[in-house]
Amino acid sequence: MSSFWSIWISVITLGSILGCYLLLRWCLANKTGVEEGDDMHHEFDGIVEINNQLPKWWTMLFYICIVWGVVYLVLYPGLGSFKGVLNWQSSNQNIRSLAESKAAVEALKTNGIVSQYDREVAAADKAFAPIFEAYYQKSVEELAKDPEALKVGQRLFAQNCSQCHGSDAGGQRGFPSLIDDDWLYGGSPDKIKETLLNGRKAMMPAWIDVLGAKGVDEVVAYTLSLSNRPDLDQSLVTAGKDKFTNCVACHGPDGKGNQAFGAPNLTDQIWLYGATEKSVTETLTYGRNGVMPAFKDTLGEKKIHLVASYVYSLSQK
């Protein structure tokens, strides 16, 4: 915060408190020349105004609020750049990565500054650590049948995964559905945990420079034919079959994909970026780059164990 805004905020804040005090003193002063308890000669609808002081309980409460406001500003941040004598702050500010967050936590501890958020996180970790440890001792398959464990896993999923895969884990364009049994890298408990721990980086190269526009159209037609798509130009399908040899290294000679590379099966009706001719043409022309972030440092292995159990349960009928 610049010096100007620090001074501006301080003046406005202290001025407001001073203004409240002066307003109270003004209301307590008898400036009418009328004795306390006498008629003010104001009447409305049969109600006569009497010159009475403010109630003492109300006046004392007002004074207490003013004093409390001053004490708060001394103890906690609130006056511009002044941090307060308690060295307290609500959370680490301007954090852009997990590494910066960890560094900020350590820096605050070194400087004796108390971060409310860090303190609450530490308390929560201490309180719930035994619960996560108990679940971690059980297998993913076992937890997938435990309703209470699944509730915890579902909450963790909602907080960390639903932004991409949806609250129902049904996925969206570019983000796979987790409720079917179609897996790019494998749907076993170990593979799901591996994906969550280390993340995934998928890359489909652009083929327009290799195949040309006509060649792309031909491979698109053949690719769509693998999933029994009707009404295709058979001449394009035939020509595309020969050019599909460029794709077999990842998708296999039969187009059924390869989980070792994360190459999808092209023979089913499940499409990550859309099943239309336009979408498939776009994929071949420009390529695709997909990233699944690693959650090892964010959640830790024990929480990931629960998330993996929940995700695994979604595809088990």
From TrEMBL:
At the top level of its lineage, which domain of life is listed?
A: Bacteria
Which PROSITE patterns does this UniProt record tie to the protein? CYTC
**Do you know which Pfam families this protein is assigned to?**
Cytochrome_CBB3 (PF13442), FixP_N (PF14715)
Q: Which residues form the Cytochrome c domain?
A: 148-227, 235-315
- Which note does the record give on the cofactor? Binds 2 heme C groups per subunit.
Report the transmembrane regions from the record: 6-24, 60-79
Q: Where in the cell is it found?
A: Cell inner membrane
* Pathway terms, separated by semicolons: Energy metabolism; oxidative phosphorylation
Cofactor(s), by name = heme c
Q: Which terms are listed as keywords in the entry?
A: Cell inner membrane, Cell membrane, Electron transport, Heme, Hydrogen ion transport, Ion transport, Iron, Membrane, Metal-binding, Oxidoreductase, Repeat, Respiratory chain, Transmembrane, Transmembrane helix, Transport
- Electron transport in keyword set: yes
Tell me its family: Belongs to the CcoP / FixP family.
Q: Quaternary state and partners of this protein?
A: Component of the cbb3-type cytochrome c oxidase.
Q: Which PANTHER family match?
A: CBB3-TYPE CYTOCHROME C OXIDASE SUBUNIT FIXP
Matching NCBIfam families: ccoP (TIGR00782)
The UniProt function text for this chain reads: C-type cytochrome. Part of the cbb3-type cytochrome c oxidase complex.
> What name is this protein filed under?
Cbb3-type cytochrome c oxidase subunit
